[in-house]
Amino acid sequence: MYSAIQPFIKADSEHHFKSEYEELRHLLFNLLDSPVKSTHHIGGTSHFNYPTEPILDILVGVDNLHDITALDEKRLNYAGFYRLHHPYKKKVVMAKFNNLIDLKQEVRLHIIQRDTPLFKQYLKMDEALANNDEIARHFNDKKTQILEHVARISDYEQRKQQALDKIYKKYVADSK
């Protein structure tokens, strides 16, 4: 897999990410016997309140994480998605790559069981980053600090998730 952090982008003037999200949303809901119950375009490419990696992140809600069977994975493989085998807690992550040589991530599906604290955290955090300039600035500052200390995408993603978790606990978790 491409191990470097992709250059950040600040805008999407052609609305590429929005249209790609709509296409993939349609695909996910129309897979035969799809367990998908909801989708949400999340992350920096949904609002561009801070520079972000050129990766479309989609939160996919299912009623039960075990509903993602080998058959569903096979169908997603045919659509160009591959499961990332990292120690993710209570979620399945699948990615679509630019090609099978460079393996630069273009799309990530964060598949999480709905009606769980983790699913709600994703939605609340995304809403905060999209609508609260102070939180977006704070997150951008953290990402910039992380970039100064890591070169590999896996280290960057791990530290970025830790920063998001801290920001969530500090600013978002108890807010209404």
Automatic annotation (TrEMBL):
UniProt cross-references to PANTHER family, sorted A to Z: GRPB DOMAIN PROTEIN (AFU_ORTHOLOGUE AFUA_1G01530), GRPB FAMILY PROTEIN
This one is known as GrpB family protein
State the species of origin.
Answer: Staphylococcus pettenkoferi
